[in-house]
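Note to self: keep these together.
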Amino acid sequence: MGLKVPVPPPHEQTAIATFLDRETAKIDALVADYRTLIELLQENRQAVISHAVTKGLDPTVPMKDSGVEWLEDVPEHWEVKPLKFIAIGKGGDGIQIGPYGSMLTDIQYDEPSSCKVYGQENVISGDFDRGNRWAPDSTRYSLQGYEVEPGDILFTRKGSIGQCAIVPAGISPGVIDSDTIRLRLDEAEALNGFITLGFRSAHYVQAQVQVMKTGAILSGLNSSTIASLRFAVPLRSEQTQILDYLADEIGKIDSLITDAQDAINLLQERRTALISAAVTGKIDVRGLVETEEA
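Structure:
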């Protein structure tokens, strides 16, 4: 038996189509406006972070040439130095690339051990509960130099090159994989939140990464390239002030972005409901549009 579908007369079909074309066009225009607003808010978000981590919060302080091509002037009292000088050890000792060779060939899947293997999926998502790779208990001692601790900054070195995330508290004990670099900062020199924001949002840092990627024999980052990245670094107390300021400002912008996205979702639901109501006869559109009689 064929499916029976109620079909209005042709002139009413035309009225429904005309009505829906008009009303959905209005909704689509509003959705486009909200999407434009979100793009502008995201650009503003990026600009606010970039300015704070490169110029500071006080527009009256004396400035100096940074010596970095893409950075221009920075506050006179800031230091511009390679990451290796703000890592523990002051010689790059706090920058570690993941293990190579046979050290991680015996990875177990879905068989939890005392040593989880962290990598790109955790860095990109920021979710350190994800993943089902585990190193055998028997190899944990030999992998001690690659251990992950809360507060470490992890970087992706292949694929989605240069993304980073701060390791949160409460993770399962584990190590980085060969496609990941671990940065462990000297806490007297720099805050992981300040360095991470700079890496994600400051143009001068990303420009350095792009140059290093282009000049590499093999595509990807390594511990020496990360170590040589030059950062504009204020005193630790000023880093705290900048992070507090950004937490407030970015919170406001993110709230506006969320509101705009919620409005888009409601409009799209309204569009779907309107179409459904019109084509099932729940809305009588005959008096709402001008149509020619069939």
